[in-house]
Write a structure and sequence with these properties.
Length: 479
């Protein structure tokens, strides 16, 4: 569906939008820049995309994180508006459930939602390539690689870039869109403004990536699951890839990583906590790959506002870096593009009105998903082992089936709807309180009723089974 109109195109075609950060960077949401380019170009703006690295489509070696991305409803809706949903989905692998691996080797699936609901494991590099190619199909889009932002003016929108050959380039833009990651160069100018709130939090856990190769040309484990090895204070997950490998990511406190310093210690550690993975990954590969790169840090970033006058706006990691434990980092970033586009429709592309409205709408939602991502790490590494957690999942899902509009599980709201993140959290707290009180009342009734039956047993007639059966049969007769 094309949101733009002839009037909007006539007013926007002379305006220049500079999207900073369109390539595969260390940030979770580098793809947001390329998607944004599609949105603005579709509206008829002149779009200049600037990326500090080389074109990933031409690079022989791709640097940065390879950790898979989990695409769900919000991200798919954002891709759909620029005609990219089918392309990306066709190269993803559906994951219908979490597959929990216990220490003794047993495996237990926990469905993500109702039958037919799933999230998609998508390759980060391929996604970025596809979105860059899509942006390039618009005649009004120009991709500028190897351009490092040195400075920009909050008053005029002028930007200075350093090119690969050492020369500088000056660019003037009507709107600057900062999509340049958790350590955004664009955001540095915001920090110099009064009343700009900013915080960043490093969690005490890092992550390390390992690869589980195919066995006899096939996946080493069941492919349509997100595999999790929860071990209370740490965990490992594995997501499937199109080449039949799994990308395994070990999340663990840094001091635990530092305690493992030799190949033999690696095998000893995996034998103790993940014994079923050793024959699947391979002992030699474990010894080698564990030390290939040091454990990487994870940071959560919050800031407000997301805009600076009518000249600049932040999206994706630049506005809200989140830890990866709810699978919503990319989806939230893509939804930023979709929400901005919807507000552009409502306010006729008037940047002076659109930017503050975008901040007003989006800040509470992005802060909410940042908090949920922190919470979900505890759930994934620890709560999934709890019988109470599994019981509550069952209760929530059952109530959702009986009353689909009244009771909606938090994960369903976040992953399979576009319910605003902060509203999903509010509803979750309300539902949790009501359901827990209901379970408490039921438990009290059962205990109280059992006590009364024991304390004051009813006077039962002295009757044989045969006589009781005869009476029951008589009750069924109409005569």
């Amino acid at each position: 569906m094309d949101y733009s109109t002839n009037d909007s195109k006539s007013t926007s075609k002379n305006k220049v939008v500079a999207v900073v950060g369109g390539g595969l960077t260390q940030s979770t949401l580098s793809q947001v820049g390329a998607l944004n380019a599609c949105y603005f170009a579709k509206r008829g703006f002149q779009v200049e995309v600037f990326e500090s690295r080389e074109d990933i489509r031409q690079a022989k070696i791709v640097k940065g994180r390879s950790i898979n991305l989990a695409l769900s409803h919000r991200g798919r809706q954002a891709l759909k508006q620029v005609g990219m949903e089918d392309t990306i989905v066709s190269k993803g692998i559906p994951m219908h459930s979490r597959m929990i691996h216990s220490l003794n080797g047993t495996q237990s699936p926990i469905p993500y939602g109702k039958k037919g609901q799933y999230i998609l494991s998508v390759d980060r590099a391929n996604l970025n390539k596809e979105l860059l190619s899509a942006a390039e199909t618009y005649s009004t889009t120009k991709l500028n690689f190897a351009h490092k932002l040195l400075n920009w003016s909050t008053e005029t929108g002028a930007m200075t870039f350093l090119r690969a050959d050492g020369t500088k380039e000056e660019i003037q833009a009507d709107l600057i869109v900062g999509c340049d990651g958790a350590f955004s160069a664009i955001r540095k100018q915001f920090l110099r403004q009064s009343r700009f709130n900013f915080s960043q939090t490093y969690i005490p856990h890092g992550y390390l990536e390992l690869t589980m190769p195919p066995i006899n040309g096939e996946f080493a484990m069941k492919p349509n699951y997100l595999h999790i090895w929860p071990r209370n204070t740490f965990m490992m997950i594995a997501l499937p890839n199109l080449d039949k490998t799994f990308t395994c990511t070990l999340f663990m406190p840094f001091d635990e990583f530092e305690n493992v310093t030799t190949g033999d210690q690696v095998i000893e550690f995996f034998q103790k906590y993940f014994p079923d993975t050793i024959p699947l990954i391979g002992a030699d590969a474990l010894k080698r790959d564990y030390f290939r790169l040091p454990a990487q840090a994870m940071v959560s970033v919050k800031c407000s506002p997301y805009h600076l006058s009518d000249k600049c706006v932040l999206m994706g990691d630049a506005a809200h870096a989140v830890v990866p434990f709810y699978g919503q980092g990319m989806n939230a970033g893509f939804e930023d593009c979709l929400v901005f586009n919807e507000i552009m429709d409502q306010l006729n592309e008037d940047f002076s009105a659109v930017l503050p409205e975008y901040t007003r709408v989006r800040v509470p939602d992005d802060h909410a998903i940042a908090d949920l991502a922190m919470y979900n790490y505890v759930e994934m590494r620890s709560h999934v082992n709890s019988k109470w957690f599994l019981f509550r999942k069952y209760v929530d899902n059952t109530l959702h089936m009986i009353m689909p509009r009244t009771v909606i599980p938090l994960y369903t709201m976040v992953t399979f709807t576009r319910t605003r993140y902060h509203e999903a959290v509010k509803r979750w707290h309300w539902q949790d309180k009501v359901i827990n009180q209901g379970l408490l009342c039921v438990a009290a009734s059962v205990v109280g009723g059992s006590y009364l039956l024991v304390r004051y047993p009813p006077n039962m007639p002295n009757i044989s089974i045969e006589q009781l059966w005869t009476r029951l049969q008589a009750l069924k007769s109409p005569f």
